[in-house]
Known about the structure:
The protein contains 3 helices and no strands. By secondary structure, it is mainly alpha-helical.
Amino acid sequence: MDEDFFLHLTDLGREIAGQTYEKHRFFTDLLTEAGVDPASAERDACRMEHVISQKSFEHLRNAYNSHKED
Length: 70
């Protein structure tokens, strides 16, 4: 963070932030589609995005997307 409070991420930091944001959007959307109110879905997604491994997330996302296409 610089003196103006701007965050500057390394390439690795940007990659991790992108993965975390993808998880957050996925879980928020999934929970909302399931009928969870948006505020609760947002809070729960914030927790879920940090505890699931990238590998498990990718399997879950791929299974969801293939099921959605059927």
